[in-house]
Amino acid sequence: MSYSIKEVFYSLQGEGFHAGRPAIFCRFSKCNLWTGREEDRADAICQFCDTDFIGTDGQNGGRFKDAQALCQHLLQFWPANIQQHPFVVLTGGEPLLQVDQDLVDTLHSHQFEIAVETNATKLPPEHIDWLCVSPKANAPLILDSGNEIKLVYPQADLMPETVAHLKFDFYYLQPMDDPNPTVTQQNIKMAVDYCLQHPQWQLSLQTHKLLGID
């Protein structure tokens, strides 16, 4: 199987359980909840996405003929001569439209630790090391267990209490970002208040945006 990759870069994880951890980010092209085109946003299932995942023209992006080719490409971005195994975050778009067992097995053969960030509409291959699920309102929730659930908040049709019973190790609320800074601050306050009232949930901020890094 070939893989279409929008971009690859090395940075710090900004969100959720692994916030602050160095990682290779591999952003897959395409999503099943929005085309990525602004003219289609109003009709999309997920209308608040702020990520460019169209095509393969991002930094270090491209089309890779097989799992080995993509794996070799990713290895270039991990610092040389260190003992830690490389940590890769497979994201999107929706990575599970493309991530298959061959890719997972090939990455593991090169000692990668694999995290996947998914919208929960597809079942993953086996043996992924860390599953981060971010469900979206009005989308099918097929993947209902994993390591962490990261719920963008607020979503009127998908409030935390509707997914609090699902089987995850960690539960995060991430305030919805908005072009209007006042709305963003309101969302942060609501998320903080909800976490304080429901300690099952922890606050996840997009620290990479706060720090101004990729």
Q: How would you name the CATH homologous superfamily? A: Aldolase class I
**Helix content percent band:** 10-25%
CATH class descriptor name: Alpha Beta
Question: How many domain modules?
Answer: 1
Measured by DSSP, the beta-strand proportion falls in: 25-35%
Second-tier CATH architecture: Alpha-Beta Barrel
Strand order of the largest sheet: 3-1-2-4-5-6-7-8-9
CATH topology: TIM Barrel
The SS-based structural class is alpha/beta
Distance between the termini: 29 Å
Identify low-pLDDT runs. none
Please outline the major beta sheet: 9 strands, mixed
Over all CA atoms, what is the radius of gyration? Answer: 17 Å
Q: Tell me, what's the shape?
A: globular
Work out the number of β strands.
9
Mean pLDDT: 96
* Number of H- or I-type helical stretches: 4
What is the string of SSEs from the N terminus onward?
EEEHEHEEEEHEH
Structure description:
By secondary structure, this protein is α/β, with parallel strands linked by helices. The protein has a single domain, classed as Aldolase class I (TIM Barrel, Alpha-Beta Barrel). 19% of the residues lie in helices and 26% in strands. It contains 4 helices and 9 strands. A 9-stranded mixed sheet has the order 3-1-2-4-5-6-7-8-9. The longest helix is centred in the C-terminal third of the chain and has 17 residues.
